[in-house]
Design a protein that fits this description.
heterodimer; A: mainly alpha; Four Helix Bundle (Hemerythrin (Met), subunit A); B: about 100 residues; mainly alpha; 4 helices; about 80% helix; elongated
């Protein structure tokens, strides 16, 4: 087995086992930890796909930002001690049936479709992404910056405590 | 399975991530857990984008697209969690079955 395949199976295992833990674990905090494993696995897959900048972004934004936010929300909202209450499942059987159907269909397409694969080439991407963001993709880049500003203001306005005057 | 790394390997991982995310969104009653499911779905889509960029399209457009998906996911998580916290302060629960009763 070539090394790249072994590394792929390592990261894919981390990603899939983590993703499986999110809907199945009883405790909401364990779900967050499983999500951490899934995100790290996906970051490793980006490295294997020679997307170096994207892999670092995945680690910084998802694990450093989104996951910390989610853990904050878990701590602030759910009654961690009442494990049975904090993370209930409904319709697990129909969920599993849906999972089996969708998973079978998507995996069937992924394996058997005749993709027109070209010879992949790997090169360092950070410079090209920087040039692209300030060139070809300048407009979506600016729109994203406005969106992030709106998100910042909106999240603060929604989440702050209202001081009611009686 | 094939004995060398190929596009299908990555597509299968992306498909599994998507399915687990879908299952999370549909079966959980905790709003924070549903947000985790959305993150999983977005990650599965991102794996597909980067894999197709590497094996089929070439260039960088797939990676840039994935980058914007990450930005949108971060924004969505921030606003979603802020809304969840506001709901929790109001009715002391984030169980989606109980939140539905707030419509009246």
């Amino acid at each position: 087995m070539p090394t790249s395949l072994a590394v792929f199976y390592l990261f894919a295992l981390a990603a899939v086992v983590g993703a499986a833990g999110v809907p199945m674990s009883k405790n909401i905090f364990w779900s967050a930890m499983a999500l951490l494993s899934a995100l790290v696995g996906v970051g490793g897959l980006y490295v294997l796909l020679s997307a170096d900048f994207l892999a670092v972004t995945q680690l910084l934004v998802y694990i450093g930002g989104v996951l910390v936010l989610i853990i904050f929300a878990v701590m602030l909202t759910s009654q961690i001690k009442e494990i049975e209450v904090s993370n209930q499942n409904v319709g697990l059987v129909s969920g599993a049936i849906l999972f089996a159907l969708t998973g079978t269909l998507l995996c069937f397409v992924a394996i058997w479709a005749p993709w027109k694969v070209v010879l992949p080439q790997s090169h360092e991407t950070t410079t090209d992404i920087g040039n692209g963001l300030l060139g070809t993709w300048l407009l979506p880049f600016e729109v994203a910056s406005v969106l992030l500003l709106a998100t910042l203001i909106g999240a603060i306005v929604v989440a702050r405590k209202e001081i009611k005057e009686d | 399975m094939m004995d060398h790394l190929s596009l299908s390997h990555f597509l299968v991982v992306g498909a599994l991530l998507f399915c687990f995310g879908l299952m999370t969104v549909l079966t959980r009653r905790n709003a924070v857990a549903m947000l985790m499911g959305i993150e999983l779905i977005l990650n599965g889509a991102n794996v597909n984008l980067v894999a197709f960029n590497h094996y089929v399209a070439g260039g960088l457009s797939g990676q840039i697209f994935a980058l914007f998906v990450i930005v949108l996911a971060a924004a969505e998580a921030a606003v979603g969690l802020a809304i969840i916290l506001a709901i929790y302060q109001m009715i002391r629960t984030i169980d989606t079955a109980n939140i539905a009763s707030m419509r009246q």
